[in-house]
Amino acid sequence: MRFDLSILWPHLPFLWKGAVLSAEVCLLAIIGSVVLGALVAIARTSSAKPLRWLALAYVDLFRNVPFLVQLFFFYYGLPELGIYIDAFTTGVIALSIAGGAFASDAIRSGILAIEPGIIEAAEVSGLSRRVIFTRIVLPIALRTAIRPLGAVLVNMILTSSILSAITLNELTGSGRIVASDTFRPFEVYAVLLVFYAALTYAVSIAVNLLHVRLNRGISQDVA
């Protein structure tokens, strides 16, 4: 078999469209997962037991159920209840909910790592609990959790390839169509392999640089 990438040239616009769709889904999903993860982390560190139990149940459920099952539940199961969601929105919601379960652990670890003296000093200054949490605790926790959150983002990029199972023609779905049309799956999936590897590697480097920048001047034990 002769390796020939030239057969993909006519299909590059279609593959590019799939790549852009993947990027849109992942961008919206990472925002959703961080917001949801922060809310769950707050609930898990709350003094209210019902909130802690509810948050823990959410994390345990979505961390221990295959993502494909979650995806099919939202896309094929919810219509049985009269709830119809398009493939793009379903992908964003499913990735956000699944990613939120992992992001919550990272943010919760960042919250628990904060020195008690910082919070005590803020309380002595007369700041309200809401201000302390939103202006002091959460920013420090997010800064500490940058690297774990980066791992969540990388995993989300890789997991987004499963969205083709619900007819969403993101990059992997587009690649599958091109492979079917050209009968050259080796070249198509070789390109996708290199693309995903390069993208996740670039994201990992960017996350590390962001971590260094945000934690500049802070000892590694604290950061």
UniProtKB/TrEMBL annotation:
<feature type="domain" description="ABC transmembrane type-1">
    <location>
        <begin position="19"/>
        <end position="207"/>
    </location>
</feature>
<feature type="transmembrane region" description="Helical">
    <location>
        <begin position="20"/>
        <end position="43"/>
    </location>
</feature>
<keyword id="KW-0029">Amino-acid transport</keyword>
<dbReference type="InterPro" id="IPR010065">
    <property type="entry name" value="AA_ABC_transptr_permease_3TM"/>
</dbReference>
<comment type="similarity">
    <text>Belongs to the binding-protein-dependent transport system permease family. HisMQ subfamily.</text>
</comment>
<protein>
    <submittedName>
        <fullName>Amino acid ABC transporter permease</fullName>
    </submittedName>
</protein>
<keyword id="KW-1133">Transmembrane helix</keyword>
<keyword id="KW-0812">Transmembrane</keyword>
<feature type="transmembrane region" description="Helical">
    <location>
        <begin position="55"/>
        <end position="75"/>
    </location>
</feature>
<comment type="function">
    <text>Part of the binding-protein-dependent transport system for glutamine; probably responsible for the translocation of the substrate across the membrane.</text>
</comment>
<keyword id="KW-1003">Cell membrane</keyword>
<dbReference type="InterPro" id="IPR035906">
    <property type="entry name" value="MetI-like_sf"/>
</dbReference>
<feature type="transmembrane region" description="Helical">
    <location>
        <begin position="81"/>
        <end position="103"/>
    </location>
</feature>
<keyword id="KW-0813">Transport</keyword>
<feature type="transmembrane region" description="Helical">
    <location>
        <begin position="149"/>
        <end position="168"/>
    </location>
</feature>
<dbReference type="InterPro" id="IPR043429">
    <property type="entry name" value="ArtM/GltK/GlnP/TcyL/YhdX-like"/>
</dbReference>
<dbReference type="Pfam" id="PF00528">
    <property type="entry name" value="BPD_transp_1"/>
</dbReference>
<keyword id="KW-0472">Membrane</keyword>
<dbReference type="InterPro" id="IPR000515">
    <property type="entry name" value="MetI-like"/>
</dbReference>
<feature type="transmembrane region" description="Helical">
    <location>
        <begin position="188"/>
        <end position="210"/>
    </location>
</feature>
